[in-house]
Amino acid sequence: MAMRRRVMDLLRRESVFRITPNYLVGACSKAISQSTPATICEETNTSKSDMLVDSFGRQHTYLRISLTERCNLRCHYCMPSDGVDLTPNSSLLSSDEIIRVANLFVSSGVDKIRLTGGEPTIRKDIEDICSRLSNMEGLKSLGITTNGIVLARKLPKLREYGLNLLNISLDTLVPSKFEFMTRRKGHNKVLEAIDVAIDLGYNPVKVNCVIMRGINDDEICNFVELTKEKPINVRFIEFMPFDGNVWNVKKLVSYAEMFDIVTKRFEGVKRCQDHPSDTAKNFSIDGHRGTISFITSMTEHFCGGCNRLRLLADGNFKVCLFGPSEVSLRDPIRSGTDDDGLRDIIGAAVKRKKASHAGMFDIAKTANRPMIHIGG
Ligand SMILES: Nc1nc2c(ncn2[C@@H]2O[C@H](COP(=O)(O)OP(=O)(O)OP(=O)(O)O)[C@@H](O)[C@H]2O)c(=O)[nH]1
Ligand SMILES: C[S@@+](CC[C@H](N)C(=O)[O-])C[C@H]1O[C@@H](n2cnc3c(N)ncnc32)[C@H](O)[C@@H]1O
Ligand code: SF4
Ligand code: SF4
Predict the structure, then answer these.
(1) Same domain for 22 and 100?
(2) Does residue 169 share a domain with residue 29?
(3) Which of 67, 105, 144, 182: disulfide with 110, CB 3.0–4.6 Å?
(4) PROSITE patterns recorded for this chain (predicted)?
């Protein structure tokens, strides 16, 4: 039975990955480019549906799926110091439920899915989920955002199962600071994961770095230095407020300030052409193999080009990272609602999406979930 499923998987994958079957991409030789999603799937004729267009005309094509509320780290900026309430396992979406919901989105025009969490790599059925998602007709990119702790070991298989976008979070190059920021050990494992990802051909490997004043703002130039030799994209992220993360405007280092720090030290910093739905403002630096970016959610939001929706591990659907409103898809699924009924619920929530977030001071006062529940 297992063998039959594997053969069926391979056959299906071959028919989806007609341009470059993923398992035929040479392990080290061929880059998995984030800008050429054709390496994972050819263009399909998936129709875009009104369900995913909001009242401001934004078409949502990117679904972030949180696979778990659990994590093997405890980052101060994400996880409240006294932990979070965990949803009982029976109330989390099963892999079949995730695939059913993802299918609804992909058949309505979503072409990019990112897995997140908590820490998505600790979910036991992650390989099965990746394999089933990457086989979906119409899905062009399947990504993950991960802390990298167990990635070096798991990445070859995940890549084989269709994972073609990789963002790894690393906030410091100093091991003792890593232990302070994450309340756990493992700095060397994250560095190893970045190198394994480069060797496997992910290009660029995106490195997410949340900058907090007095904690790691002194390392900005060291991270930029890293892009000289490594083909990575270091993304400096403005610290954002979420429930329990003791955000404070004094700890926020703005895009303007970070940019100033970088350009005072490095010459030849040039703005790249960004995609309208990018979260990041991207820059190349003369003579560097890698690039740098800034994610400016607080001081220069990018809501006008927003194409993102979120499915949380407990089955709640969230149309905005900072919007408190959520609607359960799990409950209707478990009470027998058919696909049309689910589409109605999703479409109505999308239509209620606001034009932009409320501004950093209002966000800081609004009840939302802890970041670890939302997944970024
Ligand atoms: N304000 C805002 N921030 C976001 C959104 N999506 C992601 N982020 C933040 O951007 C940072 C990086 O998130 P990632 O998980 O790497 O996702 P991404 O930036 O969409 O990644 P790419 O697909 O590589 O562009 C995190 O701090 C996220 O919380 C969004 O829709 N709005
Ligand atoms: C919530 S994590 C989940 C995925 C995975 N555990 C990881 O850390 O990459 C997703 C992203 O959100 C970022 N993040 C978490 N809390 C944040 C905050 N308060 N402000 C800005 N980014 C944050 C993390 O650095 C990470 O890149
Ligand atoms: S940022 Fe990621 S690694 Fe850190 S606590 Fe949150 S979910 Fe875990
Ligand atoms: S804050 Fe909300 S509207 Fe703005 S980019 Fe993020 S998810 Fe989209």
Answers:
(1) no
(2) no
(3) 105
(4) MOAA_NIFB_PQQE, RADICAL_SAM
Rounded to whole angstroms, the Cα distance separating 229 from 173 reads: 15
pTM for the model stands at 0.90
Domain shared by 196 and 315, yes or no: yes
**Is there a single domain that holds both residue 7 and residue 88?**
no
Ligand 1 neighbourhood includes 290 CB (under 6 angstroms): no
Residue 147 CB–ligand 3 contact under 6 Å = yes
Q: Which atom of ligand 3 is nearest to the CA of 72?
A: 8
| Whole-angstrom distance, CA of residue 253 vs CA of residue 292 | 16
pLDDT digits 0-9 by tens, 319-359:
999 999 999 999 999 999 999 999 999 999 999 999 999 99
**What is the predicted pLDDT for the residue at 12?**
35
With a cut of 50, list the residues of the chain below it in pLDDT: 1-47
Backbone angles phi, psi at 111, to 5 degrees: -120, 0
Decide the pairing of beta strands 232-238 and 291-295.
parallel
Residues 88, 26, single domain; the answer is: no
Q: How far is the CA of 147 from the centre of ligand 3 (A)?
A: 7
Tell me if 312 sits within 8 A of 342, measured CB to CB. Answer: no
